[in-house]
């Protein structure tokens, strides 16, 4: 198996655009937009699964080195963005609070949103949490068997309990019960990602994924009709139904990625994959500070196009700004 798996890069780029499109469409309305937003929400779980899969491909022995590399990659771009974001917030909206610096410094903006530009950055806090518990996930993976099943069952039970007893969690209604599901998805990618993805190229696996897809769709649609507005639907049936749908999307996109042979298209996707993290970081402030005004003055189409194009340009700039310090830190670490 090659070190670089193009299908993984393809899924990661698709997941990035799903999340960004979700946030773009939240500000406009047209027939079917709610359904598109619902599907695009899957981008978060796709990204978590792929992250777990990549880290679970081999046993990690030097955790200090692993943590340094992970945190350097997520924190350096975040800190560069924080300086820009705080400056933009002050110049445009005359808002500045010292606690914003603290929240950004420790990647806690997902617990308490620091600024308008950090509304979508709860995910960066979540991925840091996943990194922190990765040693535990590897330990569980090595135990396997009955112990692994017991851990998964316990987490599912806790998720259902917390769904009813608490609303605390990360920003944007990502409650503690939702975060447990996110960890389960990340852990599934870490423990069983290779088995799921490498078998997905076979049509038999795609058939089973399609069956699970139907189960997920039924859970979402029938659940909404019978239990809409209840905790049972909003935090249990709906999210598990979406996970069933997500597993189909993962296997489908992985298979589609294997069919892409055009060299130019591959290079474009690989380029977007390299800046996907920066793309995700900047798009929130681009929409809030610039393209919302385009929406009011120039309509929905110009708003959507400008949101993507300007976010791409901002991502390139942030990527360039971070390139030298990231290279220097990686070189020093080695």
Summed up, what is this model?
This protein is mostly helical and 334 residues long.
What do these coordinates show?
By secondary structure, this protein is mostly helical. The protein has 14 helices and two strands. The chain has a two-stranded antiparallel ribbon with strand order 1-2. Helix 1 packs across helix 14 (300-333) and helix 4 (63-93) packs antiparallel against helix 6. The two termini are 25 Å apart. The model has no long low-confidence stretch (mean pLDDT 90).
Strand order of the largest sheet: 1-2
Euclidean distance between termini CA atoms = 25 Å
| Number of beta-strand segments | 2
| Shape by Cα distribution | globular
Query: Helices and strands: which structural class?
Result: mainly alpha
Give the DSSP E fraction (strand runs of 2 or more residues): under 5%
Please bin the fraction of helical residues.
Answer: over 70%
User: What series of H and E elements makes up the topology?
Assistant: HHHHHHHHEEHHHHHH
**Model regions low in confidence, pLDDT < 50 over at least 5 residues:** none
Note the main sheet. 2 strands, antiparallel
What is Rg?
Answer: 20 Å
**Number of helices, counting only DSSP H or I runs of 4 residues or more:** 14
Give the rounded overall mean pLDDT. Answer: 90
What topology does this entry show?
Elements: H1 6-25, H2 33-40, H3 42-55, H4 63-93, H5 98-105, H6 122-132, H7 134-143, H8 145-165, E1 169-170, E2 174-175, H9 176-199, H10 203-227, H11 231-259, H12 263-274, H13 276-298, H14 300-333
Antiparallel strand pairs: 1-2
Helix pairs in contact: 1-2, 1-3, 1-11, 1-12, 1-13, 1-14, 3-9, 3-11, 4-5, 4-6, 4-13, 4-14, 8-9, 8-11, 9-11, 10-11, 13-14
